[in-house]
Amino acid sequence: MAEATYFRKGFGLKPAIEGLLSSDYHSRLIELLRERDYRLTVGPLTFRLAREFGFCYGVDRAVEYAYETRVKFPDRRLFLVGEIIHNPHVNAKLSAMGVEFLRREANGSFDFARVGRDDVVILPAFGVTIHDFERLRALGCVMVDTTCGSVLNVWKRVESYARDGFTALIHGKYQHEETRATASQVMKYPGGRYLVVLDMAEARLVCDWIEGQGASEPEFAARFREAASPGFDWARDLERIGVANQTTMLSSESLAIAEEFRRSMVRRYGEAAAAGHVRSFDTICSATQERQDAVVQLLAERPDLMLVVGGYNSSNTAHLAELAEGQGVRTYHLEDSDCVELESGTLRHRPIGGKAEATATGWLEGVKTIGITAGASTPNNKVGETVLRVCAVAGLGAELESVVSGQ
To answer: Which residue in the list 68, 178, 253, 325 is annotated as catalytic?
Structure first.
């Protein structure tokens, strides 16, 4: 009997990895915060934890499946296409377990030259493009697919658009792994096409084009060169569009963009005919929505500052930080707990909308209440360690120990 080469439903080995997962990602301090109604007072500081934060179901599943894969294939070489999720701590743990990372080359393609038939390749939670999937299948290696179910739902949506002759209009980051994989799904169909818009500003440019205004076709083609399907025809391919989104985008903006395109089609074709030219479904995943809603709820208490913990390349984490700052609360996006520098007391962070890390001084001055949350790819121990390090910088290490031990 031929060996199975594609796995998507797990190996039933969770009991064998539970202890390791707990030691790698569990935080007793976070459990204490939950037990105390997501609030912890240490001396003059009060920490308020968002009620939904950190690992979501899809990330939990992907990480567990990767750990199970190591147990299932103890003597095989294990490769991972890109990163399992956008969190440096989790990816470092996998590397320590012997998982080798396959990186993109300058041309955007993954280098699979080292992969052979006897190897095992893990597909990340973001999914992979159809092209990469077919390349791996042709190699005959074992594939372990951890693609998130919410991402698969978006794939089904854009496939339906392509099948019905609609261009998939995707709100997302065209260079992001998830959006690349989603866009590739439409290419299964003859004439399948897509266009990726980053934000409302780009969406409005496209709406202007639909309504016969704005820039010339060469200008549009140049601006969206990397964000559009090959051979995109600006005169034809925006007559009928179906709106979707990268699951981790800011929900309010995705919904506003969808409505903007609907209005544009109404202005172009009239109310009665618009339904035949635009389709829209909210494809933000429930976990992303829940974490954004929890931040809004927390910010209603007006903390003095907000700490958002998660990888700098994590889209959902970046949007939590953007949401918090947009509510007028001083916000810092920290890649990891060690961004709280113990010796200097400074705070390394990436400014909202920025690309380079910056260092803040005096960031705790006058602060009494700190809100804290984490992206869906951030493990609990990194959130807990952030609280520990903040207390240490504030000179409250002994007080925290007393609070925890006196529970």
So the answer is: 178
What's the rounded Cα separation, in Å, for the pair 93 and 120? 18
Given the structure tokens 């903040």, which residue do they identify? 390
Query: Residue for token digits 């308020």?
Result: 48
Average pLDDT, integer, range 60-79: 96
What's the gap between Cα 276 and its chain centre? 32
CATH number of the domain encompassing residue 155: 3.40.1010.20
Q: Which of 280, 247, 59, 66 is nearest to 151 (CA)?
A: 247
Say whether both 161 and 123 belong to one domain: no
Check whether residue 169 and residue 139 sit in a common domain: no
52 given a catalytic annotation? no
**Residue 24 to residue 18: CA distance in whole angstroms:** 10
List, for residues 168-227, the tens digit of each pLDDT value.
999 999 999 999 999 999 999 988 999 999 999 999 999 999 998 877 888 888 999 999
Same domain, 222 and 274: yes
Q: Report which of 174, 176, 66, 188 is spatially closest to residue 134, judged by C-alpha positions.
A: 188
Let me know: does 323 contact 251? Beta carbons within 8 Å: no
Residue numbers of the domain that contains 65:
57-148
Q: Which residues pair with 78 in a beta bridge?
A: 99, 120
Beta carbons of 386 and 337 less than 8 angstroms apart: yes
Cα angle, residue 328 at apex, residues 322 and 330 outer, rounded to 5°: 75
How many domains does one find in the chain?
Answer: 3
Kindly report the CATH number assigned to the domain that includes residue 135.
3.40.50.11270
At 109, list the tokens: 């393609």
**CB < 8 Å & 24+ apart, contacts of 261-269:** 261/169, 261/203, 261/206, 261/207, 261/210, 263/207, 264/207, 264/210, 264/211, 265/210, 265/241, 267/211, 268/210, 268/211, 268/212
Q: Which residues pair with 101 in a beta bridge?
A: 80
225: DSSP letter = G
358-360 vs 347-349, strand pairing mode: antiparallel
**What angle, 0 to 180 degrees and rounded to 10, lies between the N-to-C axes of helices 130-139 and 177-185?**
90
Return the pLDDT at 2: 56
CB neighbour list of residue 338: distance below 8 Å, 6 or more residues apart = 385, 389
* Residue 218 vs residue 158, higher pLDDT: 158
User: 188, 195 in Cβ contact below 8 A?
Assistant: no
